[in-house]
Structure formats: C-alpha cells, structure tokens
Amino acid sequence: MKISLRSLVFGIFCLYQLSNAQGDDKCVAITMDDLPLNIASKVNNKELLRVTLRLLGQIDKYGIPVTAFVNEEKLIVDGRRDAERVKILKLWLDQGIDLGNHTFAHKSQNQVPVAEAKEDILKGERSIKELLAVQNKKPQFFRHPFLQTGRDSLTRSTLTIFLDSLGYTTAPVTVDNAEWIFASAYDKAISLNDSTMMDSVGQEYLSYMQKKFRYFEWLSDTLFHRQIRQILLIHANRLNGDYYWGLCQMICSDGYSFCTLTEALQDEAYRSSDTFYGGGGISWLDRWALTRGYKGKFFAADPHVPQAIMDYAGVKYE
Ligand SMILES: [Zn+2]
Predict the structure, then answer these.
(1) How confident is residue 8, by pLDDT bands cut at 50, 70 and 90?
(2) Main-chain dihedrals φ then ψ at residue 233, nearest 5 degrees
(3) Interval between CA 202 and ligand 1 midpoint (Å)
C-alpha cells in the first residue's frame, strides 16, 4: 500500500492521539487472532510470508500496539511443526508484538470436555513459549476460541483456575464483529482475481466496522455512563493484510487513541459480573448487559453484515 498524503495526515493525527490519551478519552486495544494466518492450512509458506509481511508493514507504520494470538496447529505441515512457519511467527515478536495463546486446535470450551480443553491450551503454548523464552518472557494472555468461555459455571471456573495456574490473563473482547465473513468474501474475490469485488468488500468492511464501533460505544454509555477502554478483535487474514491501515484510520477519525491490552484491562469495567453461559461467542459488553437482565430488542441496533457480502461468502449465519 502506498502512503498517500491522506494517510500521512491521519498518521500524524494518530500519533497525536496516542501521546495525548487521557483517562476519559476513547481508547481501544487492538488484538489479532488466529496467527500465523486464519487460512494457514490452505496456503503455502510463500503466501504465508507475503501476507505476514504486509500485515507487519502496516502495523509497524505508526507504532500502534497490537497483541496477537496463535493457533499452534496452524504451524503444522504434513503432521510436523514446520520450522519455516515458526520463523515467520517469530517475525511478529521481532517487531515487538506480544504473542498470546489461542489454543492448539481452536476447540470451543463450550463444546469439548474439560480435559480436552486443558490439553488444547497446553498444546497451544509450545512455540510461543519457546520463542518468548529467548526474550526472557512467558506467554501472558489467553484468548478463548470462538469467545466461548465454558458452558456452565463449573466448566468456566475449572478452566479459569487452570489458566490462572499457568499464569494466563484472559483477553476479553468488547468490539466483537463478524469480520471473518468479509475475510471469506475477500479470499473468494482474490481467488477469482476480481479486483472490483475486492475493493467493494474492503470498503464495505470499513463501513461495517465503523457501525460496530458506534454500537459498542452506545452500549458502553448505556451500561457504564462513560466510554470504557475497548478491546477490538480482528484476525490475521488477507483482508487485514490490505485494509489494516484503513481500519486504523477509520478508528482514529472517530476520535480514538490506541492503548495496549494491559492498559485496557486496567479499566474497572473488566471486573464486571458475567454470568452468560449461552452458546454465542459474543462481546463482553453484551455479556455484561445480559448479566444485568437486558434482552431481546435491547440489542436490536447491533449492525449486521450486508446480505450481499453474506451471499457472496456463502455464509448463512453471522
Ligand atoms: Zn480464533
């Protein structure tokens, strides 16, 4: 992506926001899941490296903090951990991006027995543990696959105690979204070499994400009477390989500064009660609202993915 004058102005604006963040200002921590790439099993190492370098190039541009989460299974090729993929993963750490555990095989803690969930967590830390050890660090954060944290209170508390014993802090998400559907549509447009559709999906993505941000701002205002420090979830995919910086520009233009995940979690909001045990992988803001008894039409303003994108991606449900 070329740096246009517009990008440059926004970049300077972002840096200004970054250095002037105050306690009550809107801020967001960016988290990126499914490293090294959400469709790692479908691409060769050359493509994996190409997308990784595009993502890292954009992340590096203005030093916006990112915490990224790894699925160890995506480093496996032909039944064995692939050294080249581990090297590609190391590029993230070399750029100062913290890597957290997102399990080995992305198993839902609502769906599998506790013992299997524990095994998935342990197997998920092999490479990140080794890579972080070189920097005298340990994995700090854990992100639940599908944002599912256990189907009942016993499952959740058992797995929370297990994660605590390994030294993990759970990484919640407040700005949850269905960006994966846009990513799927974008991959399809790439495979068909349809640049018009790629542009269209990219622009729809940015517009959708802006609506999502505004929805969760409303939810924050309604529940907390202020703007909490938000945590955004996006994925390592080809869509963000091309639109990550555009997304950051949009977030900046809506008045946000960027904070680290650690800074976001200092917000008292993250100590709120959560008794949601449903199947949906939903935002923590939604969980807190449901815990307080809000339901049904209260959530009616939550933006949906445009039907045309759903149809093109061949996805029936968000
Ligand atoms: Zn994931």
Answers:
(1) low
(2) -110, 125
(3) 21
Span from the CA of 317 to the centroid of ligand 1 (angstroms): 17
Length of the chain: 318
CB 30 within 8 A of CB 68: no
Domain that holds residue 13: 5-312
- Report the alpha-carbon distance of residue 162 to residue 50 in Å, rounded: 37
**CA of 104 relative to ligand 1 center, distance in Å:** 10
Q: What is the pLDDT of residues 247-305, one digit of tens each?
A: 999 999 999 999 999 999 999 999 999 999 988 889 999 999 999 999 999 999 999 99
CA of 102 to the centre of ligand 1 (A): 7
Whether residue 145 is contained in a domain is answered as: yes
Q: pTM of the entire structure? A: 0.93
Q: Identify whether 317 is part of a domain.
A: no
70, amino acid identity: V
Number of domains in the chain: 1
CA of 208 to the centre of ligand 1 (A): 20
In the reported structure, the alpha carbon of residue 144 is separated from the centroid of ligand 1 by a whole-number distance in angstroms of 8
